[in-house]
Design brief:
With 588 residues, the chain is α+β, with helices and mostly antiparallel strands. The chain has helices at 17-26, 81-88, 100-109, 160-165, 175-184, 232-250, 265-277, 298-308, 319-332, 342-352, 365-369, 373-379, 410-421, 426-452, 465-472, 487-496, 513-519, 521-530, 532-535, 540-546, 552-571, 582-587, and strands spanning 2-9, 35-40, 43-49, 62-63, 71-78, 119-127, 132-137, 146-149, 153-157, 198-199, 204-209, 212-218, 257-260, 283-288, 311-316, 358-360, 457-459.
Length: 588
């Protein structure tokens, strides 16, 4: 895992060294094990390395051994690199790095070079013979990649903040995306919350010449087909083989690795498979919340760890952690996602990074195997309570925001139309909507920023193209039955580890931010309401009232405004939190 960045000048001039230095410094936390640089003509590339595979010869940039002059910098892991190397022969390679494979597939296949890669990646290739810069992102958007296209140059980076800190673009908030963030807790599509900074689409390859985008190629994450016919027995047999081989290749590493164990279906499946595949005990980390009213998952996770013989570490996230760490976490979330799971994820990553460089995590299981309650809702007709995905925003009908329009849902509406026209059913459409935006722009952004801030790589075995094709095309009855989602995964786990009790209804994951906010609600509400970033979007008196009002919706709305105020301080106003607590930062 690493960080990458680069620039291509439109006029053919050599990139400014100071800009490359600033880009490298801004992403240095992503790769504390070394830096590499490539400058040729109008192109400059930088990479900061977190060494995971091929510790001795895997430094980047990586150059074509046969002398074509092509060069690659990359962030991520190509899990099927050993299988792909056999197609070329060992004489083609000068290192044992998994990232040397994409360079060879590019030289063979051109712009479609990433179509057979099985992994998570953000890649940049300089092809001097064609005078091209090619940048690519994996189909699910596990690894981030951002760019700016300005009058004099094209620049890209693993994090949006790097482009800002290198003075390549000003940190100006898009009003439209600001509204989307507040209502959804994340932003959708190609445009970020920053004016002029865009995301590379998940699965997209962009070709740049003379500092301008000239070509785009898209590799979709999900097949555009209706569910197939398959029996329960056949599905379980295929799932067993797919999960086993997928987790196996996701463990390829030359450094120690472990697992984030929530005790839910997805992470428990990973625990079961890792326990079988490894000779040593699985190192597992679970977060919990003491002295609160929310459900604590540590007891169940502890039992599962005991069953499998895992080396289990329990991490408590308390009210003090909330007040002390949220400003730093909000600062790290340069592409903002107001997901309160960033809190325990941050502390888990900090703890795991003391012993490991890689952790596996269960993101993607709910989206691909239909675990969310909203999926069951879309399958019901409207007269039985059926609702579209995200039919209501966080602040709808609360009379707090100054903008009460429904424009925040425009992209979701367009996705619904596209998926329906492609022949997908209602459940598939809801899954596709989540995989297009919620997954890359909330869950995976959270995982990337919280882990990379501590030099820790996160791997998501469920977000694998083989798993995705199998799961997405399952018939609805193998995804949802009655009031339970992830039916096939539950059936597999019941046979594999009955102690997990997979058919018992699991309580939803909750972080007690509402309890912590209400404890200092009056002073916190006054401080949040006074922020310029809040005054321009919300009614001050209503904000103050919100912070002293109990209720699930009210708590989440208060959390969203608090997160936004702290995010704005760090990423727009450029005020470093300097390890100060929430109140100190808001007081200025």
């Amino acid at each position: 895992m690493c960080g990458i960045a680069g620039i291509m000048m439109r006029d053919g001039s050599t990139p400014n060294i100071d800009i490359l230095d600033k880009l490298a410094n801004a992403i240095s936390h992503r790769g504390p094990d070394g830096q590499g640089r490539h400058i040729s003509g109008a192109i400059g590339l930088v990479q900061t390395r977190l060494a995971i595979i091929d510790l001795n010869t895997g430094d980047q940039p990586l150059y074509d051994k046969d002398g074509s002059g092509s060069v690659l910098v990359g962030n991520g892991e190509i899990y099927n690199y050993l299988e792909l190397r056999k197609e070329f022969g060992e004489e083609k390679f000068s290192t044992n790095s998994d990232c040397e494979i994409p360079l060879q597939t590019y030289l063979r296949d051109g712009v479609t070079y990433a179509d057979n890669l099985r992994g998570m990646y953000a890649l940049a290739i300089h092809d001097p013979n064609e005078n091209k810069l090619i940048i690519t992102r994996d189909p699910f958007g596990i690894k981030p990649l951002y760019y700016v296209e300005q009058e004099n140059y094209f620049a890209f980076a693993s994090e949006a903040q790097a482009l800002i800190n290198a003075n390549l673009v000003d940190p100006i908030v898009s009003d439209r995306k600001q509204h989307e963030l507040l209502q959804l807790q994340f932003t959708c599509g190609q445009n970020t919350i920053y004016e002029n900074i865009k995301r590379v689409w998940p699965g997209e390859t962009i070709v740049i010449q003379s500092g301008r985008i000239v070509e785009r190629h898209l590799r979709p994450a999900l097949p555009q087909r209706k569910p197939r016919t398959i029996t329960d027995k056949e599905a379980l047999s295929q799932l067993d083989e797919i999960l086993y081989t997928t987790v196996d290749i996701h463990q390829r590493s030359d450094v120690p690795y472990g697992l984030f164990l929530s005790g839910g279906i997805d992470s428990t499946i990973l625990l079961s498979l890792m326990a079988e595949l490894n000779d040593k005990p699985v190192i597992a980390y679970t977060a919990g919340f003491s002295d609160t009213q929310v459900h604590d998952e540590r007891d169940h996770a502890r039992m599962l760890a005991s069953v499998t013989g895992a080396d289990h570490h329990e991490i408590n996230f308390g009210e003090k952690d909330f007040w002390q760490t949220l400003p730093q976490i909000a600062a790290a979330m340069d592409d903002p996602a107001a997901d309160y799971a960033i809190l325990p994820t941050w502390k888990l990553a900090k703890a795991a990074a003391q012993d490991l460089k890689v952790v596996l995590s269960g993101e993607g299981g709910d989206e691909l195997f239909a675990g969310y309650g909203r999926y069951r809702s879309v399958m019901r007709p409207w007269w039985l309570g059926g609702r579209n995905v995200r039919h209501r925003g966080i602040f709808d009908n609360m009379n707090i925001l100054l903008d009460n329009s429904t424009s925040w849902r425009d992209r979701i509406t367009s996705h619904e139309a596209v998926s329906t026209n492609s022949g997908c059913n209602k459940l598939q459409t809801a899954q596709a909507i989540d995989c297009a935006d919620w997954l890359p722009n909330d869950l995976l952004t959270k995982l990337d920023r919280c882990l990379m801030a501590h030099g820790l790589e996160g791997r998501t075995p469920f977000l694998d193209p083989v798993v995705a094709e199998f799961a997405y095309l399952l018939p609805d009855k193998l995804k949802v039955k009655g009031r339970l989602g992830k039916w096939l995964l539950r059936s597999w786990l019941e046979k594999r580890m009955p102690e997990a009790k997979p058919f018992e209804k699991k309580r939803g994951f909750t972080v007690p931010v509402g309890e912590w906010i209400i404890n200092k609600g009056r002073v916190l509400g006054e401080l949040v309401a006074k922020q310029d970033s809040i005054k321009e979007i919300a009614d001050a008196k209503s904000v103050e009232k919100l912070f002293i009002t109990e209720g699930k919706r009210e708590s989440f709305a208060a959390w969203s405004l608090l997160f936004y105020a702290l995010w704005h301080k760090a990423n727009i106003e450029q005020i470093n939190p300097n390890n100060r607590n929430i109140l100190d930062v808001l007081e200025g």
